């Protein structure tokens, strides 16, 4: 049986969406999924090198890997009135060229931040270290992602919501694209369709069985936060809108790619639906 590497981040929504497979509730045909958990920028960099068969990525990375990876339609995270937060120490005022910690060069929040704050001095670090770096004064500000947007220290305050930056840049009627998954193009199409179907089922099963799955993950120590924070976080990033990309989410992705292109971060304009797995092939093949 073929082993397929599936890499995801260790944050609560990715763990939640994947573990329906890990626990054996959903299984692919004729393949075994082997999961790897790592921080999102490490996964972005790994995708650039082609390390994994299926990998979670920041959506902002995708135009750089589109020739080698197809975009999956499931396990997606979007913000709807919320998202990463630019935080600073309470009572401080940021200068035009303030020093900021971001969670990675290819993250979506980094793309939006660079457009909004072109004069800021950027340093990259693991997302788990950003909050303490701001508290210690190593940087003037930092962009928090994942669960830390709910749990940051009382000595810190929000300078700007990345959601507000997105609204200003995009026009205000689209959800904020944050992360999704991609699959290696060298995988045979019929197998790629099956793997995507498996992941769609896994996310759907996890979402529908949240009251069972969430306590299991907490009991096994797989989640970094407590039960209440997990519940709040899953409300944000692992919900009905995570199961399969919708029309408005495609529009949001295209707007993100357009912003990156117009601001010189991408060399060509990418349309998200041009880079999906052609799942209709499965139906045609069966006729």
Structure commentary:
- With 287 residues, this protein is of the alpha/beta class.
- It has two domains: 2-78 and 177-286, D-Maltodextrin-Binding Protein, domain 2 (3-Layer(aba) Sandwich), CATH 3.40.190; 85-170, Periplasmic binding protein-like II (D-Maltodextrin-Binding Protein, domain 2), CATH 3.40.190.
- It contains twelve helices and eleven strands.
- The chain has helices at 12-22, 40-49, 62-65, 108-116, 130-136, 148-151, 162-170, 189-208, 210-219, 227-237, 247-262, 280-286; strands at residues 2-8, 31-37, 54-58, 69-71, 77-79, 85-89, 99-102, 121-124, 141-144, 156-161, 176-184.
- Strands 1, 2, 3, 4, 5 and 11 form a six-stranded mixed beta sheet that branches. Strands 8-7-9-6-10 form a five-stranded mixed beta sheet.
- α1 crosses α8, α1 (12-22) packs across α9 (210-219) and α4 (108-116) crosses α7.
- 43% of the residues are buried.
- The model has no long low-confidence stretch (mean pLDDT 91).
């Amino acid at each position: 049986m073929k082993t397929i590497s599936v890499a995801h981040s260790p944050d609560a929504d990715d763990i939640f969406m994947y573990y329906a497979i890990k626990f054996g509730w959903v299984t692919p045909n004729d393949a075994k999924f082997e999961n790897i958990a790592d921080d999102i920028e490490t996964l972005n960099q790994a995708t650039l090198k082609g390390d994994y068969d299926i990998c979670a990525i920041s959506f902002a990375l995708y135009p750089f890997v589109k020739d080698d990876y197809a975009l999956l339609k499931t396990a997606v995270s979007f913000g709807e009135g919320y998202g990463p937060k630019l935080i600073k120490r309470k009572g401080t005022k940021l200068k035009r060229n303030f020093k900021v910690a971001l969670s990675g060069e290819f993250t979506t929040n980094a793309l939006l931040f660079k457009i909004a704050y072109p004069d800021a001095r950027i340093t990259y670090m693991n997302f788990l270290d950003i909050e303490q770096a701001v508290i210690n004064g190593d940087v003037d500000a930092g962009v928090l992602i994942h669960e830390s947007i709910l749990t940051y220290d009382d000595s810190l305050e929000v300078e700007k919501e990345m959601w507000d930056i997105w609204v200003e840049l995009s026009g205000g009627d689209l959800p904020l694209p944050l992360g999704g998954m991609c699959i290696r193009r060298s995988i045979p199409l019929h197998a790629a369709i099956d793997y995507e179907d498996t992941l769609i089922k896994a996310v759907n099963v996890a979402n529908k069985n949240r009251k069972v799955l969430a306590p299991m993950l907490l009991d096994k120590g797989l989640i970094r936060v407590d039960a209440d924070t997990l519940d709040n976080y899953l409300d944000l990033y692992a919900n009905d809108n995570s199961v399969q990309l919708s029309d408005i989410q495609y529009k949001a992705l295209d707007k993100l790619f357009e912003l990156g292109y117009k601001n010189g971060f991408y060399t060509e304009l990418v349309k998200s639906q041009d880079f999906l797995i052609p799942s209709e092939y499965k139906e045609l093949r069966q006729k």
